[in-house]
Amino acid sequence: MSAWADVERALSADDAEERRRAAASLRRPSSEVPVKLLMRALSDSDWRVRKEAVLTAVALAPSPEVLSALVAALGPGDNVGERNSAVEALADYGVHAIGALAHALGDLDADGRKLVVDVLALGARPEALPLLKRLLKDPDVNVRGAAVEAVAAIGEGCAEEAIAILDECLDSLSRFERLAALQGLERLSATLPWERLEPLASDPILLPAVLALAGRSGAEPAVPALLDMLAAARGRTFADALASLVELSRTSARAHERLGAGLREAPAQVRETILALCLDEDGQPGERRNALCAAGLLGSDAAARAAVAALADDALAEQAEATLTELGSAAVAALVAGAEGPTPEQRAACLSLLGPLVALDPDANAAAKRALGDAAPEVVAAALDALAAAGDRAALQDAAGLLGAAPVVAQAAHRALATLARRHPADALGLVRSASPSGAGAEAAAIVIEALGASQPDVGAHVAFLAAALGGPIPTARRAALSALSALGGSAALEPVAFALNDEELEVRIAAIRALGRLSDETGRPLGVEHLTEIARLSSDRSLVAAAARALGEVGDARAVPVLGELLGREPVVAVAALEALGAFAGVERDEHVVSALSHADSEVVKSAMRVLASASDPRAASRLGVCLEHTEWDVRRLAAELLGTLGCDEALALLRGRLSLERQDLVREELTRAITDAETLSGRRRTAPPPSLRGMRRQ
Question: Is the pTM of this model over 0.70?
Answer without folding.
Answer: no
